[in-house]
């Protein structure tokens, strides 16, 4: 497993590093080669606004998803994207199907294979959607389109129920902490992080008492 993790770190860092380079190469080319630069003020303003809206996910997602995804799965998921609505549910469903516990060696291998298969399927579907997606969306009734905002919460609810059934006490603790944190008057940016940290601390404390 040590060799597997070494190779996961090597290829994970390499592929994500290449993606970062390719991602920033186009705006750098447009800005400093073609001279199409919007100025630093709108760039910084946009960055601050974006960070204020979803910056918590930069810290919350790697911490909260890692137990299910493992090292190799984490690299795969953050490379392909769609973690919450594709990679994580696929990994959790595959682990549940074969009886692999998250955080174990078997669980990590299963998650890696599931994410790889899901990514291939996602690319196949994306090709079809890119070609005909706008037409398909246009023929869907607006009443149904209005339900799209509930897709991600429904996925997270299903994943939560799947793990809560295995340890109902911890599921109840996580739900209680989540409700409490959302009711107290703190910035939305901190709610996700605080919820995760509190839940982990409480559950670890209970495990130590056992």
UniProtKB/TrEMBL annotation:
Keywords: Membrane, Transmembrane, Transmembrane helix
Entry's transmembrane regions: 12-34, 40-59, 109-131, 143-161, 190-206
Protein name: Small-conductance mechanosensitive channel
Species, as recorded: Cytobacillus kochii
Organism lineage: Bacteria, Bacillati, Bacillota, Bacilli, Bacillales
